[in-house]
Amino acid sequence: MRSDVLIVARPGRAPRIEHVGGIAVRRTGADTVHLVSAAATPLGGDVISVRVVVEPGARLMVRSAAATVTLPGAATRESRTCWDIESAGELDIDPQPTVVAGASRHLTETRIRLTGGGGIRLRERVQIGRSNEREGFWSGALHADVDGAALLRHRVELGTGSVTDDALGRPLACVSELRYPDTAFDADGTVLTLAAGGCLATWQGERLTN
Question: Containing domain of residue 77, as a range?
Answer without folding.
Answer: 2-205
